[in-house]
Design goal:
75 residues; alpha+beta; GMP Synthetase, Chain A, domain 3; 3 strands
């Protein structure tokens, strides 16, 4: 799932080399932290957070076969 999030984020931003996804795993939860360049933050979040919400929805849908809850944090 981290590869999926990284691929989607790199296709949105103008500086794809600055995109980094880190994983934090607990017993019941997987947290993916997405970091991008400061000038690309608006492109990843979108108007009223619509793109961020769509990214979270796609990653959550991809994680349905796992038993863990997936959170996407944009930092």
């Amino acid at each position: 799932m981290d590869e999926l999030l990284e691929f989607m984020a790199k296709s949105l931003v103008s500086n794809p080399d600055a995109v980094k996804v880190t994983k934090k795993i607990t017993s019941s939860e997987l947290t993916l932290e997405l970091s991008v360049a400061p000038e690309d933050m608006g492109k990843v979040i979108g108007k009223r957070g619509r793109i961020a919400k769509a990214l979270r929805l796609i990653v959550s849908a991809a994680a349905l076969d796992t038993d863990k809850r997936v959170n996407v944090d944009i930092i």
